[in-house]
Give the backbone structure.
Amino acid sequence: MNTAFSLAPLFRHSVGFDRFNDLFESALRNESGSTYPPYNVEKHGDDHYRIVIAAAGLAEDDLELEVERGVLTVKSGRREKGAESVTYLHQGIAQRAFKLSFRLADHIEVKGASLKSGLLNIDLVREVPEEAKPKRIAINGQVRADEKPVLEGQAA
């Protein structure tokens, strides 16, 4: 069965969105079989987000967070056994290695992380720079009533 499809019609009337095609294709290739460890992605207001990862039995030294080229990666290696040997009669708390990756949208920055009560909280904030914010464009030199007009030959 061929699951490939073309997104070309979606990009006909857009400029600079060609990287979204790559995002869709990579999302289709991702394996959805791994659900360890469980996590939530929460929205706390218009520009504040939090990723909460269940990290039962892990210490801060067992976890590694990294942001590279817009991808947040959370890794944990297999925990080293202590000096004393333990025989588990039942081992329900997983201690296996994991790697989670989250693609961050433009202007999303990681503001901090904390480990509390077995939950890893990663706080994210959207900070849009001034040059990326919307601005009004005058048509034929016409300006709105609340703006100062700029005449030909004058500096703005």
Summary: The chain has a mean pLDDT of 77. The domain at 36-79+90-130 is CATH 2.60.40.790 (Immunoglobulin-like). Helices lie at 8-11, 18-29. DSSP finds two helices and seven strands in the chain.
